Amino acid sequence: MWEKHSADGEKLQCAWLKDIFGVLWQIVPRALLELMQDKDPVKSQRASKATLPMTKIDIESLKRAFLVE
Length: 69
Prior knowledge:
Structural class: alpha+beta
Distance between the termini: 33 Å
Number of domains: 1
Low-confidence stretches: none
Number of helices: 4
Radius of gyration: 13 Å
Oligomer: single chain
Strand content: 5-15%
Largest sheet: 3 strands, antiparallel
CATH class: Alpha Beta
CATH superfamily: 2,3-Dihydroxybiphenyl 1,2-Dioxygenase, domain 1
């Protein structure tokens, strides 16, 4: 979905992109929602913070940030 909508468009921060028609999309993987809604607020904050510099969400990087002790 990310590749299709971002083709010839603009990739923005935090999974946002603008397609060739100027429509804004946010492509949010289910795994991101699961990590950010974890019962442990410290872990969920780490996952949330890790998304900020990303354009396309990298789930493996988020999981690594989430699990750091």
